[in-house]
């Protein structure tokens, strides 16, 4: 009788430990799911920041220098340099293609402004930015070969 009682107590203790381990495992799974969601959000944000869309094809940033804050890209025959980034009152764009117009959007897709591009001086364009609030923006450049989308930061 004592051994049955002892075995019953041990079995009850094991069931309690099993329940505790199951609860811990469930909590770890919830934490893992939350971490995975956060990782996906970060990955999506990084993809948005570091992938540019040209004619529905992603191109890679070939150079990004946080010290000089320039961005340089190349896709086929398209060469683009955008600086300074972050920008204050103006931004310089050097592009091998003729840029005809530009549009500036918020990161949520709201159009801020669109305008014909001022004439280039040896493929060097300047855009004035005095009315933009500080923040991250999408710059869409319309060229004779398509649209180039670039993210820039306004200080």
How would you describe this protein?
The protein is 32% helix and 44% strand. With 155 residues, the chain is an alpha+beta fold. The chain has two domains: 1-52; 55-154, Immunoglobulin-like (Sandwich), CATH 2.60.40. The strands form two sheets. A six-stranded antiparallel β-sheet has the order 1-2-3-4-5-8. Strand 4 (78-83) and strand 5 (90-95) form a beta hairpin. The relative contact order is 0.13.
Topology readout:
Layout: H1 2-50, E1 51-54, E2 57-65, E3 70-75, E4 78-83, E5 90-95, E6 99-106, E7 111-116, E8 124-128, E9 135-143, E10 146-154
Antiparallel strand pairs: 1-2, 2-3, 3-4, 4-5, 5-8, 6-7, 6-9, 9-10
Summary, kept brief:
The protein has 155 residues and is α+β, with helices and mostly antiparallel strands.
Keywords:
155 residues; Immunoglobulin-like; 32% helix; 1 helix; alpha+beta; 10 strands; 6-stranded antiparallel β-sheet
Strand content: 35-45%
Give helix and strand order, one letter per element, not per position: HEEEEEEEEEE
User: Helix coverage percent of residues?
Assistant: 25-40%
Which word captures the global form?
Answer: rod-shaped
Overall tally of structural domains: 2
For the largest beta-sheet, the strand count, sense and barrel status come to:
6 strands, antiparallel
Average of the residue pLDDT scores = 78
Distance between the termini: 80 Å
Global Rg: 27 Å
Number of strands: 10
The low-confidence runs, each spanning 5 or more residues with pLDDT under 50, are 50-75
CATH topology of the largest domain: Immunoglobulin-like
**Number of helix segments?**
1
> Would you tell me the structural class of the helices and strands?
alpha+beta
CATH architecture of the largest domain: Sandwich
Strand line-up of the largest beta sheet: 1-2-3-4-5-8
What's the CATH class of the largest domain, please?
Mainly Beta
